[in-house]
Amino acid sequence: MNDQIQKCKDILLAGKLIPFVGAGLSARFRFPTWSGLLDLIAEDLSWDPDVFKLSGDYLQLAEYYVAQKGSVGELRSKLDKLLNASDEDIIKSKAHEKLSTLNFPLIYTTNYEDTIERAFKLHGKDCHVIANIDHLQEMRQGVPQIVKFHGTFTDDESLVLTESDYFERLEFESPLDIKLRGDMLGKTLLFLGYSFSDMNIRLMLYKLMKLRKAHKLSEKLPTAIMTGSSFTPIQRNLLEKWDVVVVELNPMDQSKGLDDFMENLS
C-alpha cells in the first residue's frame, strides 16, 4: 500500500475523513453528459443543437433555458428521468458499497442523482439526506449524513444548475456552505470523481486552504485528498502548495480506479 493511501486510511480510522463526491463516481452508470442534455433542451427550444452549444457554456445555456421556461421545473424533470440508475447497477458499484459501509458519518456530493443514498438503502444502512435548511433541523443523532451540496431533485429551490445559481454558491454563505466550513475544520475532505481542471473545485480547495491556515490547522491534517489520474507536474506543484495530497488512480479505467481505491480503505 503506498504512502498516500495509508495516510487516507489513517485519517479514516481517526474519524476525520469526509468524502466529497463528484460526477466521476457516477460515470459507470453511463448517464447522459451535459453535451447530450444540451442537445435535448436545444431541441425543446427549437434551436439547432450545434448552434445552441456554440452560444455559451452549459451554465449560461441552462440559465437561458430556465429563463425561457419560467422555472427550473422542466430542466429538473428532464434530469430526474435521465440520471436514474438501476438497483442492479448500484449494487455492482464497489465504490458506492464502500461509501455506505465504511462508517463515514458524513458525505458531501455535488451530484443531483440519488445513487449514494440508494446505495445505503440497498446495503441495509440508514442515512439522512440534507439539501436545505429544513433538512439540517431534522438531523438525527448517529445517522450518517449525505449533504447534497448542489441540491436534490425533490426540492427545486435547492438545485444549483444555472450560472446565477453558481454565482450565488461561490459566495460560500448559504446554510450548506456554513455547515461545510464547520464540518471541515479538524477534518480532511476526500475528493472523489472530480477533475483539477474544474474551476469550482480549484476555488473550493483554495478557500479551504485559506480557512485552515487562518485556524492554524494546516500542519495537523492535509487540506484535502484529491484522487484522479494524469496530474501534470504543474498541477502537483499547485496542489502541494495548498497542502493537498494527490492519489493517482488507474488512468485507463476511472471507475475501476475509484473502486480499487475505496476497497483499499477497508
Question: CATH class of the largest domain, please?
Answer: Alpha Beta
Output the structural class. alpha/beta
Domains, number: 2
CATH architecture of the largest domain: 3-Layer(aba) Sandwich
Sketch the major β-sheet: 7 strands, parallel
Unreliable segments of 5+ consecutive residues? none
The helical percent reads 40-55%
Strand content: 5-15%
Shape: globular
Mind telling me the C-alpha Rg? Answer: 18 Å
Overall mean pLDDT score?
A: 90
Oligomer state of the chains in this structure: single chain
CATH overall fold name of the largest domain: Rossmann fold
Strand order of the largest sheet: 3-4-2-1-5-6-7
In short:
This protein is an alpha/beta fold and 266 residues long. It has 14 helices and seven strands. The chain has two domains: 201 residues, 3-Layer(aba) Sandwich (Rossmann fold); 49 residues, no CATH class.
Can you describe this structure?
The chain has 14 helices and seven strands. It is an alpha/beta fold and 266 residues long. It has two domains: 201 residues, Rossmann fold; 49 residues, no CATH class. A seven-stranded parallel sheet has the order 3-4-2-1-5-6-7. Strand 3, helix 9 and strand 4 form a beta-alpha-beta unit. Helix 7 runs parallel beside helix 14.
